[in-house]
Amino acid sequence: MSADGQGPALVALGGGHGLYATLTAARRLTSNIAAVVTVADDGGSSGRLRAELGMLPPGDLRMALAALAQETDGLWARAMQHRFGGTGALAGHSAGNLILAALTEVIGDPVAALDAAGEMLHCTGRVLPMSPAALTIEADVSGLEADPRVSRCIRGQVAVATTPGKVRRVRLIPQDPPASPEATSAIEHADVVVLGPGSWFTSVIPHVLVPGLHEALVHTRARKILVLNLAAEPGETAGFSAERHLHVLSQHAPDFAVDHVVVDSGSVPEGREREHVARAAEQLRARVTFADVAEAGTDRHHPGKLAAALDQMIRLPRPESAGLRVEGRHMGQDVRSALGGKERVSWR
Prior knowledge:
This protein is α/β, with parallel strands linked by helices.
């Protein structure tokens, strides 16, 4: 637990609805949260503001702020999420995106603008961009040509997310973008790092492609937890199994390791498929936990169930070998479990 008694320092990485789900679950466990958000969106309101004002695409940042707002159904949180209708210049814009655009221009710094918005919403934690510069996603996609063996290069988050082809590999433009110093610092000082769920190629994998973030993720002493999606997404991961998600992540960052992989028990039948998932997790040097984390009848994570699963992972004692992989200390601390009662755990 942190010295100020807020709970373990938890960093959640991702974007969009996946990160929203993680943050909604995380705030049940701690108030010491940092959300590190992808900044490659080029569609809708975010894409328009990015192109017109040269700012970071604000949509995913806005959603993270809304997830951490003191009153998620309060007036300001609802206003931030409000989207204008009609056919005029404001049509399709989110009010929160415009507020972030205004704060960024007035203050002159995107991180300070996010902090100001967080204060306005009385957020539980902090929202940070993964990079101080807006990024572009580029992908090699097969299945778009007559010859299925031929790959085509497509560019842009929307194009990658909606392609009818099969995404093979993604990269960022610029190739070696800077990492947000605040984001790398949060990861370095974290007790727990959670990656996923979310759009695999456009919201999850980009975090391990930013050199500074990648370095921080490899060397952090935090317990690292990967949360898999409940189902493949139309477009970028169509037809992907849980096993394939793990293989793809490992291919993009061979030296990246996590401690735990959380898989919804209803998404992967018992037997051979679970064995394949566990084997794929070995590439990430992780142990797999199958748990009921889904909202019944949907492909969305249930905040309470996901919080319970994360809490279970956090409370597990670290194996003795954990100190061999990353040099660091092992500190037992008292924390209040989300499942009730006080637990003695090793955060480091």
